[in-house]
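Example record

Each entry pairs one chain with its bound ligand, adenosine-5'-diphosphate.
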Amino acid sequence: LQSRRYVGFDLGTSGARISVIEQEEQDQSNYREVHAESIKWNGSDAYDDANSWMNAVHSLLRGASISLGGLNSVASICVSGTSASCLLMDRTTMEVTRKPRMYNYDVIGSTKDDKNAKEAMELLEKHAPPKHTARARTGSLAKLLTWIKEEPLSENEVLCHQSDYVSQKIMGKSTELVSSDWHNCLKLGYDVKNTKWPTWMADCFTEAGYSDALSENGILPLEIVSPGARMGVIHNEVARELGLPDDCVIVGGTTDSNAAFFAAAGTRPAVGTAVTSLGSTLAMKQMSHEYVEDASRGVYSHRFPSFEESEDATWLVGGASNVGCAILRKLEFSNDELASLSKEIDPTKDSPLEYYPLVKPGERFPTADSDKQPVLEPVPADRKDYLHGILQGISDVERDGFEVLQELGAPPPTIVWTCGGGSNNDVWSEMRERRLVTKFDNPDIKVKKAECTEASYGAALLAAATFIECR
Ligand code: ADP
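Structure tokens for the complex follow.
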């Protein structure tokens, strides 16, 4: 008997990726990736074209089918997309009516005349709570209100995020509802605490001329599920076309950085589990019992997927700093030099240098200060000492970040999984660990390199988690 398999898709910034996983026989809480493949967006397949997304899904499934000898055992599929990338489609024909506006699309300045966008932003400023994450000019609500201002909605138009659209296409017209999930809908304004659309949104749409926006045939997705919760079943024609079984389940999707968290930490992490991304910039996410928010510092909480009705809500709290590994590139430390110099650093000793390693002025988290200046002086004669000071400076920002999250109500970290270029540096991990152990007075805090960080793998874990829990 073939074990069940679970598929995760990641539609990312540079390409799309599929992961197919199955449960380990020996250890049922573990999954192994039996197939993975990625494709890059190129000229004809653009990152911002809904047809490209579907072409990618088809071609990645074909590849998986060839490599695995068929897809008959695929039980469920989960799609992760870039955050706040959305389009409008006709709910009956499923044709795209307004082309995708992607994660980085700023409504102001993206069209020749942004009068409509400015009016949309005025509506948001009037109705959305101060500093609400949905007020962002790149958020899905700003994009939607701009569309409404540009051209009146037709009766059948409905908003889909990138991940909703792909899921919906796979479910085909077997459902009249357009569904979405807690993660994708956060930047659209969804109230994740009370799991409903807030009244300020209704007021906002009413003023824009749509009093029934929140109704059954309104512009918003109607059923907002937990990421990973069953959303529907594959359409039988699509199943035949893609070689998937007729009872293949489509589960609620997620966003790329949350999917990366699941990849690194799993879908059942204990409270206190954190993931730090040490790429060009430093970003951290942590599991918390408390909902934590501080809009002035860009700290907000995603609702963690829940697999049982009775479960108390838990939260994925996050913050992102402007410091990070970008400074290493700027100061011309090559990856080889980073590896060799780091070996000479003693991670048990503090550097006397007190740097704040920004590439340019301005910080958002742990302190919001648009004038915060980089501190990278004095420059020692020895490159190794220089690097020691920089790595320590970034480690201090991470430690202070966890401290701020704790002050706001999150627990102290217990284990910090690391991804991104900086995760390859064990000496640095040791420096970071020592700082957290000292700060939180807990010798058991660990900093480790994450084994897997691909968002597609995280999405596949979500697809599997729900299926296993619901059996
Ligand atoms: P991005 O955010 O651009 O995707 P990556 O996650 O690819 O970044 O990380 C690249 C960064 O990692 C570069 O800035 C590089 O300087 C840094 N990096 C690579 N190797 C090391 C290392 N051994 N120690 C510290 N930083 C490293």
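The chain has two domains: 5-252, 269-449.
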